[in-house]
Amino acid sequence: MKIRTRLHIVTAASVALVAIMALLFYWSQHRVAAANKAKNLADEIVSSVFERKALNSSYLSNDNRKARDQWLSKQKQISDLLKMDPSNVVSISDRQTFDEIQKSLDGSSTVFLQILNNRENARNGVRGQAEAHEIESRLVGQLLLKFLDTIAEAHRLQKASTLLIASTQKTAAKVSLSIIVCVSFFMIIVVWSLGRIINKGIKNLQQGAAAIGAGNLHYMIPITGEDEFAEVAAVFNTMSGKLAVSHAALELEIVTRKRSAAEIEGLNQELVQTVAQLEGANQELEAFAYSVSHDLRAPLRAMGCFSQALIEDFGEKLEEVACDYLNEIVIGSRHMGQLIDGLLTLSRSTRGELRHDRVAISVMTDRIRAELEKSEPQRRVVWQIEPGLCTNGDSRMIEVIMRNLLDNAWKYTTGTTEPTIRVYAELEGSELFYCVADNGAGFDMAHAEKLFQPFQRLHRQDEFPGIGIGLATAQRIVHRHGGIFHATGIPHKGATFRFSLPYGEKQGEKL
Amino acid sequence: MNINKTILMVEDNPQDEKLMLRALNKVNLANQVDVVRDGQQALDYLFREGEFAGREGVDLPAIVLLDIGLPRVSGLEVLKRLRHDPRTRLQPVVILTSSDEERDRLASYEDGANSFVRKPLDFTEFAETVARLGIYWLAVNKPPQE
After folding, report:
1. Which of A223, B16, B37, B125 is the most exposed place for a label (fewest CB within 10 A)?
2. A297–B98 C-beta distance less than 8 A
3. For A356-397, how does the pLDDT look when each residue is reduced to its tens digit (9 = 90+)?
4. Which CATH number fits domain B7-140: 1.10.10.10, 3.90.870.10, 3.40.50.2300, 3.60.20.30?
5. Which chain B positions have a beta carbon within 8 Å of A344's beta carbon?
């Protein structure tokens, strides 16, 4: 049973107690009032009977007519009093008492009328004085008996009323006492049981909270009964159940994360190893490049130089063909030297840190132009260099790009009438492209991809000499700057090379 | 410190040695050239130790032509030791090498080289360069002390 229901019952019982007490009070008051009324009536009857007795005596001794009339009217008054009986309160025994009083009154009335009749007869001479006197004496005796009867009945009525009052008060006291005792007992039991239930419920909740606080998330509070504590315990158990579930999920998450962290750690170590391997490989590559630079050149120099020494010192003694062959050795070793230098530049373009320089491309182009014109002063080339071109990046590397592109433009316009080389910048979207264009030999776009592969050439050595490594190097440098390299060409019309250097521009924004 | 009119050539490659001697011979400097073939020998020569212990009293060369890639003690190490010794602290040294690596060039100047020359591949250029070096350091250049 719910605690609320129990409290309702206690309240209802209290209300009922108050109602019963009120009813009891009303009932006892009513009874006492009725009894009082009956008592008063009895008192009045007694006094009226005594008054009538006095009137009776007065008439009998003085033959007072007025007293006779008063007696009759008193007789009628008492009858009237008896007629308005408080029947609603008077018990059966009381009613009998009333009837008895009525009967004795009626009897005394009859006797009194007989006395009157007797006196009348005597006065009229119907009956003799002595006989009338004797009859009257007997009738007066009867009247006295009736009077005593009436008094006795009236006294009984008085006594009954008094008894009724007493018994009513006693009953009311007994009933109210027993009700108070019963209700108090009931309430004590209810309050005690309530206290026990509340105490037990709080204790259970306390234990549950302590257990969960200590980490036992699977603890369940025992559910007894159907009261509010059972509801709270059920909610509590649901809560602890959900807590246990989420706790388990969290633990799983932690385990997963730890595993992921371990995996990441493992991957990191692999990465560190890979980086170490890469660094090792890079160092080997560098050592190799250094070795190529240093050690390959010495024997090459020996071949070229001793061949040339032969021509210089013994040229007169040698046949022309022998001199020619020696020259071929010199040319071959010179070409191989260029190849080695090209390879070194290519290898350097992918190594080392990028520097952040401000690079004046127009100025750089002008300087390279001057060098090219000096190398072949007989050539006439029209140069269109957009002034003020500037970028940010590694100046040595950007110079390698420009030198390669301008060398190519210079070389491939050799057979062109009115050769023109243009250097300019143009925006494509948000990206700035630097362009080197010529109207020289150009190339077939079908072979464009070969342009950027080392040692792949689109022209024969006897047409245009070269080692086929310049564009590959330039492209790598552009890529290292995060840029794009495009080449477009039409055979015998010319070629355009365009590149962007976003790395340099971003560095420029930071500067 | 006294400086005479000799050239010390430190060169481990006999072909380069031959080519350089030929070039110096063309300008009549060949008879003033001493040749050593590794770094340790160069140090012994300059500090008069080891096989050169008996050379007391002989002056230091006017110029040392020093290759970098040398057996036993490298050219840069020889240069460092020369600069750390008070006797050879001011000895003119030219690095003459096949390398054109920037780090070699930087390291050479950092260690106190007076000049850095790359051996040209072309014979004519090579011969000219060596001959010019010889004439410059023997005839044109003024040494720290006479």
Report:
1. B125
2. yes
3. 888 899 999 999 999 999 988 898 889 999 998 888 888 888
4. 3.40.50.2300
5. 100
